[in-house]
């Protein structure tokens, strides 16, 4: 479903302004369990994108998220989301933030000042190499955060569905 895959930039801006301040219960492998499948894209009981990993084979979006994370995010956040001296470990962060918060931070950026230092996460809402794959990156990091995916390149993955190809083409064109 294209509308769930491609999120207009103005909606991401609204998300950035309206991030909930309510407590988020820690994500677990049980909460992240896939309950629906839309052309190879999996969703949890709350309708958030999630992963499906069986017998060492990951779904296409988890694999794509691994690739996209390592092309654009790992320089700051470290290999496999493990963090660095420069940026936090996303495998820890994603246990405690929800999907909307993740989208708003990636799209709009984040700045923290305190203790004599400044931490800045740049906005990637205009970068199609990130924007068009935010769900994929989220799914990969979520799988890592709840311990479902080990470190390193997934050895086996499902093939890329036609729906994934169509959504990618539409996003990159738009």
Distance between the termini: 16 Å
- Annotated CATH topology: Cytochrome Bc1 Complex, Chain D, domain 2
Please state the CA-atom Rg, rounded to the nearest Å. 15 Å
Strand content: 5-15%
Count of DSSP E strands? 8
Number of helices: 9
Question: Any idea what the CATH architecture is?
Answer: Orthogonal Bundle
Helix percent reads 40-55%
Describe this structure in words.
By secondary structure, the protein is of the alpha+beta class. It has a single domain (10-15, 27-173), classed as Cytochrome Bc1 Complex, Chain D, domain 2 (Orthogonal Bundle), CATH 1.10.760. The chain contains 9 helices and 8 strands. The strands form 3 sheets. It has a 3-stranded antiparallel beta sheet with strand order 1-2-3. A 3-stranded mixed beta sheet has the order 4-5-8. The longest helix has 13 residues, at 60-72. Residues 155-168 have a biased composition (Basic and acidic residues). InterPro entries: C-typ_cyt_methanol_metab-rel, Cyt_c-like_dom, Cyt_c-like_dom_sf. Residues 42-145 form the Cytochrome c domain.
Which key features would you list for this structure?
9 helices; 8 strands; Cyt_c-like_dom_sf; electron transfer activity; Cyt_c-like_dom; disordered N terminus; metal ion binding; 174 residues; Cytochrome Bc1 Complex, Chain D, domain 2; three-stranded mixed sheet; alpha+beta; globular; C-typ_cyt_methanol_metab-rel
Secondary structure blueprint with pairings:
Elements: H1 2-5, H2 9-17, E1 36-38, E2 41-43, E3 49-50, E4 53-54, E5 57-58, H3 60-72, H4 74-77, H5 90-93, H6 99-108, E6 110-114, E7 117-121, H7 128-131, H8 134-145, E8 156-157, H9 162-173
Parallel strand pairs: 5-8
Antiparallel strand pairs: 1-2, 2-3, 4-5, 6-7
Helix pairs in contact: 2-6, 3-8
